[in-house]
Amino acid sequence: MRSMTGFGSATREGPAGSVSCELRSFNHRQLKVSLRLPPSLSGWEADLEARLRASLARGSVFGTLRTGRPKASTSSLVDTALARQYASSLADLAAELGLPGEPDLALLASLPGVVVTSPVGEKADDALGETAEEALDAALAVRGYRVKDPVRIHAAPVATLAILAGNHQGLLGLALAPDFATSNELFVYAAVPAAMPHPDRNQVVRFTLTGNVATSSAVVVDDLPLGTLQNGGEVLFGPDGHLYVSLGDTNVEALAQTPGVLPGRILRYTRAGGIPADNPTPASAEWCRGLRNTFGMAFHPSTGGLFGVDNGPNNDDELNFLVAGKDFGWPSPVAGGTAGLRLRLWAEVIAPTSVA
Length: 356
Fold this sequence. Notes:
Layout: E1 6-14, E2 17-26, E3 31-36, H1 45-55, E4 59-68, E5 74-78, H2 80-97, H3 105-110, E6 115-119, H4 122-143, E7 171-176, H5 180-183, E8 185-192, E9 201-210, E10 213-224, E11 235-237, E12 243-247, E13 265-269, E14 286-289, E15 294-299, E16 306-310, E17 317-321, E18 342-346
Parallel strand pairs: 3-4
Antiparallel strand pairs: 1-2, 2-4, 5-6, 7-8, 8-9, 9-10, 11-12, 12-13, 13-14, 15-16, 16-17, 17-18
Helix pairs in contact: 1-4
């Protein structure tokens, strides 16, 4: 599991000047962003924060951006009408005093208002903001994050979904289909309100996108048990092409060991929401059981093994190797464990919510 503590810095030069970015991050279960910007970048604060949030999942992140002067940040204009007036007045004065020669150009240029120097203006502000984005991306890369280019938050939402807003409810998980580049399918795990004949429940919904907007949707898995707490929250595709969903014990501990129910388990479905024939429990979505509330899961990129982080009641958080058909023991005393499959037990509270 990756630590969020670290530092990254970078500097980028642009047509409107240079921007230096420093990022410091510390472990935190949620994402908190704080930016310090010079006045010249104040109008870009929302865009830069959105760029950070699009690249990071959690941690307390502090960013400081500083600007440097551009090599050429101003433009000069000559007020020829005023210069002519000065030249005429100087010629009259020279004739009156009997001075020889024509008015000196350097003298004319130094007179007030003849040469007007103006800032580069709005275009420079835009250019400086773009340079700041480049510096931010570079600092993220130094910190060790891969930044998609370009990162943009679109004003219009991809899709809207009515959800429940309880403690451990709401929009719980997102997964792109393995062939998203061609299918444009996005899968969402969420706690949704009652709609006859269904009660409040957890649900997996598939959205199909056209461009950046969902144009159709379909319920893939419905009527998953719902609790006020411990609803899990991960949905992802495995290397086998099947859909894996983490469902917590829904705040009823005994359900994690009750036969024939789904809470306290990792669930495995086909992409269409069916039950795979090779699931360890026949005709059941159960992949493994005995879990309290697994927030995050990830597949090993080489072996294909499934790993998950499970939150304990007050402490005793776990990192588990989620093998098919295994029972991880909850709500029995955590000291029992599942031999060889609990990879880490934290006695202190860390509340892990993701693993990669």
